[in-house]
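User: Can you write out an input/output pair for a complex, sequences first and structure second?

Assistant: Here is one pair. Inputs:
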Amino acid sequence: MTQPQALPTIRSIAHRLLEPPFAAGTLSIEDRIRCLGDHICNLLAWSLQDSGADTCQHLVCTTYLSMYLTGDVSMCNRLFDQIEAQQLPRPQALIQPYQCAGWGYALRYVGRGGCAQRVVLTIADVDLHDLQGCRSHPLIGASGFGVTCVLIDLEEGAELPSCNGPYPNSGFSEFLHAIRSQRRVHGCTPTFLPFLVPEMRTIAERLLGKDDLGVDRHAAYGHCFGSDPWIGLLEWLQAGKSGKEHVVTLGAVAYDGYFTLGRVRVSAEVRLRLEIEASEEDVQAEPSAWDALAGGGRRRI
Amino acid sequence: MPLVRPLEYAEVMRFERQAPVPVLLSPSQRYLLLKTLVVEMRQYVPSISVFGLRLFGPDFNVQLPRELLASDVFITHAPQDLLPALLDSGTRNVVLVHHGLRADPIERGENELVIWALMLSPESREGIESFLSNSVVLRALARRRVRPILREELARLSEIAQIAIQSVEVCGSVG
């Protein structure tokens, strides 16, 4: 075991499930983006309340958001303007190419100078276009959609997530072996992985053992892109682990073969918010033709 | 992107835009160009502390090269937006790369490439001169322009780049 090192400290985690159809009945793409902005602002305001986060750095990560938003700077600026108009920190970046591992790359970038600072990461993945082909994937299974906000304090010289790639086959094996390597150096900590289909979860459990793995919630949520490990940590804390400081490990894998893996310290005063009501009021879970082809389908909490 | 229902085809047609500018690169060629640019700049200007690089979406199944996943590179939708925080933190020797290199008909852009080298030390300035003289990537580009950026212009980088693009009568091509 090495000497204790400063780790990123988690001050709050908030997740809101936003199942498709997103903003159903809202015709224009601009209105749907405004609706997404409302959700982000709401979670962000909650995350930053009483935290004195006026100078907080804010980055938005996504895997799935439409190119209509990510590929059009003027459209993206509308979203950022909306956030800033609520006296919330204007995002300095919308990050998509790192896919589900984006939050790790964002933290690595923001923390590269080693200075103490406060960071809020928003992970936003909603289906702005109601495309059923994206509800599931042959390898990844059902998709889950929503917005996550994580408030993080970086102490001076804090350890940052490792970011690795590219690897073949989505880098999943390399990801699991990196966790084993990390455990050899730092010891085992509760570890939160992406939500996996049973076949891939079995591989993870065989390589890592079950004891220190967070519960896989794929059957409930589907794969929620970069949000998975944060939802897993949030639920774990809500299940009686909050009120005490913890060191945990979170990791995410990008489909194209990159991954991020990092240790964080969860504050004993961590604030938690999990909203799943949005999924319970709609949803026609009829399988689409693509669902049938992909073997996936919508799940319910 | 598998489309299933008729209304999904209609939805995706919203992406379509009339664009007079041709698609010149595949996604992997675009990554290769940007990778080569970063490698060359690291070679000629080793003191560069951070590259902010524009890419706005994953090209699924086309991997980013290792050189663009490195810790001195950060990929975002609009790298010029990184500048205020970089200035606040006193970061020196910053390179921001904007491009509108189209790799798909639904993508916007004028096939432009804009490189901002900012907050340079004297040593880095010399390196930039070498880069400008020797870069293979730059030699492959048409209608190159080099222009100093004044400190008071830092807040309007995008505007300056747009003026430069609009003043080019014929669109450049990438060889």
